[in-house]
Amino acid sequence: MSGSTFYVDGLTVYKSGNANLDTDECTFLFTEDYINITISYTPDGFYNPSVLAVFLEDISHYIDDVGKLGTVTAVYTTDDITFTPTSSFRAKGSSYQAKNVLYVGTSGFTPGVQYNITVSIPFNQPPNLYYPENGTVIESNYPDYNKVILSWEDCANQYYGVISKYSDFSTIWYESTIQDAEWDVTLDSGTYYWKIQAYDEVNEQYSEPSVGTFSIGNAPSKPGYAKIYAKNESTGVNLTNFSVDLYNDTTYITKSTTTGSIEFSSSEIVEGEYIAKIYANGYSPRWRIIESPETITAYLAAEDMASLVSFNLIDYTNQFKYRETKLLITRPADAGTLTISENYFDAAGLNKVYLENNVNYDLTLQTTSLERSVGPYVATQTDFVSLVVGDIELIPPSTVYGGFNYSIQKTNESVILTWTAPAGSLYSPFIYNITDTSSGEMVYSISSIAPQGIATFNYPSTEKQYYIQFWANTSGGELLHQEYCRSDQQLIDLQVSDYWYNVVSFFILATFGLLFGYRSSKIGAFLTSILALGLYVAGFLRVSEAIAAFVVVLGLLAILGGRKQ
């Protein structure tokens, strides 16, 4: 029986010696993929077998006692033996090739026993948690929204992450399957426990989870301070003579300078938000928001080069409340992006700004939890401009879903989910998935019962369409939200897929072509081509689809070629 091979629970065991153990020892070889071996046996008489482990690496031999590393004394026992060889697990991210040898020998006489081997598959070492380090206290930036980027050792292709406010994870705040070794979450103040578990290529448990804890604390108070410089917006030349009105609900201070800067000390202002109006002779005024302590540079436009533009906010989503919404106006420059104006809308929804003529500015709407890119704007004269916000999903009435509210904001770069879940509004964590419609692959997924948060999905491709599905089991009933979106079309809120967009577009082109082709095929072909171009520009058709549609219509028009030209 020497050299026989046995298969036990998926493990290949090579046995040398005699099957009846009538020689001094029996050897078993096993691979690095298994770590625990239990040997059950029944001794004959008063004789017990000895069990030794040998760890082989290169040519060296290391003899260790079973379960007692560092000694070579044999183990004599009538109990089941659990053998845990040293270094038998596979190293993270590598293929560990070392072998281990288990010797089951006799003591004095042959006991004539039957040996049964049971193998248990080990978990690999858990990934090391990098940030936040265990016990870290993170400074709180906002009472409700604090972005934390969790990171850990990159040792697998997929991970499962869980965040809880309880050390036993009895209530889960967040849970998600993550492809990378980083996880962006938004949390309020408090203490959190988090664990990361790695999975292998076949989506099987790869390691015991690594567990860590951190806290988000209230930010320590800082002394108030503000310093303001001013420059000519067009030339970048420093202004030495200018004035500043700095104010909030409790403070109003006016200062002027002839030296190029104005300071407000801790004896004049405290930490927090202020509005600064910066103005100078020959220049149009600027308004900026200052978060004390802060230093800013204001860019003023010459009076003869600027026009007064009144921006009117029209919000159909009830997300951007006038007095809580800022209009941020920036412009590109060689040294980077310049902040030109930053101020809240007034009670009438107006925000008046002086802008240089024929300059390309970028407009952004901001609240404490939302940001919406409006796009570019070029001023040519005094103007009144309406900013319409309509591509953010309406939040359901709080009385309908037990107080649970959510919104889905779509921009050219990302999809942003924001939610608020008062205590008792959710029976279980909500589920939020985004799927690539072309491949069916789920590209983003989170599940949470946190009282509030923000989740951002950045489009990996500008060409693909994505399917959004949001489900929540609320105390007011089940909530199901489904829609399609893609980055080159900010608004696809009709839950219409690319397929039906193309079908509708083909129908429009065919009807249009036949309508005009009935009287003249040339005119029909010309007008149909113009319409196909318009549908492409509007985003209903891609280039290949527009060409295909046009060819089909031309074929139909050819049938009518005998009509009057």
Number of strands: 39
- The second-level CATH architecture of the largest domain is Sandwich
* CATH C-level class of the largest domain: Mainly Beta
Largest sheet: 9 strands, mixed
**Count of folded domains:** 6
What's the mean pLDDT score?
70
SS field, number of helical segments: 3
The third-level CATH topology of the largest domain is Immunoglobulin-like
Ends distance? 97 Å
Radius of gyration: 35 Å
Percentage of residues in DSSP E strands: over 45%
Strand order in the sheet with the most strands: 12-18-17-14-15-36-35-38-39
Shape: flat
Keywords: Membrane, Transmembrane, Transmembrane helix
Transmembrane segments: 499-516, 523-540, 546-562
InterPro entries: Ig-like_fold
Structural description of this entry:
The chain has 565 residues and is mainly beta. The chain has six domains: 4-120, Immunoglobulin-like (Sandwich), CATH 2.60.40; 129-217, Sandwich (Immunoglobulin-like); 221-298, Immunoglobulins (Immunoglobulin-like); 301-390, Immunoglobulin-like, CATH 2.60.40.2190; 405-485, Immunoglobulin-like (Sandwich); 498-559, no CATH class. The chain is built from three helices and 39 strands. The strands form nine sheets. Strands 12-18-17-14-15-36-35-38-39 form a nine-stranded mixed sheet, with no helix packed on it. Strands 1, 2, 3, 5, 6, 7 and 9 form a seven-stranded antiparallel sheet that branches. The longest helix is centred in the C-terminal third of the chain and has 20 residues, at 498-517.
Entry keywords:
565 residues; mainly beta; Immunoglobulin-like; 6 domains; seven-stranded antiparallel sheet; 3 helices; flat; disordered N terminus
